[in-house]
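# nightly structure sweep
# worker-07 picked up a monomer target from the shared queue
# config: single-sequence mode, recycle default, output format = structure tokens
# input follows
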Amino acid sequence: MGRTMVVSWGLGAMGGGIARLLASRDSAVVVGAIDSDPAKIGRSLGEVIGEPSAYPGVIVSGDPVSVLEGEGRDAQVVVVATGSFLRDVSGQILLAVRHGKNVISIAEEMAYPMAADPDIARRIDELAKEHGVSVLGTGINPGFILDTLIITLTSVCAEVTRVRAARINDLSPFGPTVMRTQGVATTEDEFWQGIASGAIVGHIGFPESMHMIADALGWKLDEIRETREPIISRTERVTKYARVLPGMVAGCRHIARAFSGGREVITLEHPQAVLPSAEGVETGDFIWIEGVPGVNLAMKPEIPGGTGTIAISANMIPRVMAAPPGLLTMRDLPTPSAHLSPGGGLRC
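# output follows
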């Protein structure tokens, strides 16, 4: 089987990382690149992602149609890494689908888009089926830790009465878009103003994860309640994308609770900040399933969000290529896994 040809749409921290990972693989190759940043347009893709010798001849374009109808016309997959919200990425996804491309999106709301906007989700599903391609939203979370992994763990339970999970992670690898949505480097007053205006949202994807879990377990959710609070830093924290001074906001403590029949059945917590270790906070992923039998899983430190999102996006390419047409979620596909090289070595 030949290499899967890919168009990379969005070359920020995550999109650029996916393109870098694919450059090291024999199974896929990026043949077209799209970005809206004037500083990247017109430059070679290899130079933009920090691998000058990668992808000779691939030039970053700001014109999606020219790429999809030009150098990317024979591509089978478009990886969209441009935003978090369904309303912002749906036009890009629909354009790729109209050009006969399978799509993998890392937009958080694409993990279960029916929760954000059933009408847009329906349009994507119908158009994908019309063009015989598949569309998947994935990522480390949502897409794996607080939904797909939980669903997989319930397979050993004869009964499940409640699900609780927490992901305490380091935001440092993520780019400016994620930093803004978490309120990183704002004052406390600016944080609350951002919450009120919708500029600061905390974790994006709790409803998506909760509805995916409920769908798998046959629960009907009546209500989801969410709370967000600032994580105030007592130390200076400096990353590639942010500088947080003492007294400023280092991240957001976000908790969501889902109810069914008046009973709290799913509780998900996601306090995330840049460099939590600066104040002795131990990161990790934790899952508690109350049932028969109960399940208690703890992973410390957490699976790195940036590396995990990059890897799962690349690893899902063959799954999406083999999937039936339409809009899919992670629970619709076979169990995800890392790739093995022809000789059996791990590729992730």
